[in-house]
Amino acid sequence: MTYEQLVVLHAIVTEGTFRGAADRLNKSQSAVSHMLKKLETEIDIVLLSREEYRPKLTAAGEVFYRQATRVMQQMQELGSTAKNLSAKQEAQVFLAVTATYPLKPLLEIVGALTAEYPATHIRLSGESMGGPLERLLRQEADIIIATMDGVPVEQVEAIPFAEVIILPVAHPDFEPAQSSHMKTVSEMQSYTQVVVADSSSGAFAQSRDLLPGGLRWTVSDFAAKKEILIAKMGWGGMPTHMIEKELERGELVALNVEDYPPRQSHLFQIRKRDRDVGIVAQSIWQQLKSLRS
């Protein structure tokens, strides 16, 4: 039994299909099937039932998989410990954070570590959509805070970090906000949706909550987006922590749009397994774990 076999099993279970697991792991479907079959042969247990379109854990497979996930987590922690034991103070640490997360808690961490490790330049960058992932995979960022969309799970260590609610809103005088009935997609297509640009270069581009076929205005950040919404020039999704006061004052109100309910965005702190970890990056990683909500 190998760690790679457990990664394959985990990918099949989480993706729901052998094809999905193969795509995630950048392997052929036959290679994924072979590795799982080899694991089942070695332990003499049928882990997945293939009777239906989607493979399903057998009763024994459920028990094995629960233990396997614990072993994988322990392996990640052991790797982190090994890296930490051999760590040295770095010249620079780069932390890339999705723009939907508030920076204030991170600034407190960065401020304290800057004082403790003055020789290390700590970079903190707010990124949108695929930006954090691009920074990580191109070896630019040491740690990112982002969703798991498009993240190659076999290459990273990822820990649940926070949840952010994205709420579709507009000014109360904006026409779709003047009644509470659910607006259809076709109704909303004639109103401008304001979206924040993806900060990636394109290879890792992501898109979320885009109204198909509608008018669209792209801006650089959420601050600009909020100003446009308050100016009654469009509608769009905003992280609730950024608009608490505007909602309280009635400058913005929630919209009832078909297929656009409030969305819960799950964020993770993520780093690559094969990247050298210095003492400052490890300190940031550990302190981020203490912020988990």
In short:
The protein has helices spanning 3-15, 18-25, 29-43, 59-85, 104-116, 131-137, 185-188, 222-230, 244-249, 279-290; strands spanning 48-49, 56-57, 92-98, 121-127, 143-146, 156-170, 193-196, 216-219, 236-239, 253-254, 263-272. With 293 residues, the protein is α/β, with parallel strands linked by helices.
Main attributes?
293 residues; alpha/beta; D-Maltodextrin-Binding Protein, domain 2; 7-stranded mixed β-sheet; 10 helices; globular; transcription; WH-like_DNA-bd_sf; WH_DNA-bd_sf; LysR family transcriptional regulator
Tell me the layout of helices and strands:
Blueprint: H1 3-15, H2 18-25, H3 29-43, E1 48-49, E2 56-57, H4 59-85, E3 92-98, H5 104-116, E4 121-127, H6 131-137, E5 143-146, E6 156-170, H7 185-188, E7 193-196, E8 216-219, H8 222-230, E9 236-239, H9 244-249, E10 253-254, E11 263-272, H10 279-290
Parallel strand pairs: 3-4, 3-5, 7-8
Antiparallel strand pairs: 1-2, 5-11, 6-9, 6-10, 6-11
Helix pairs in contact: 1-2, 1-3, 1-4, 2-3, 5-10
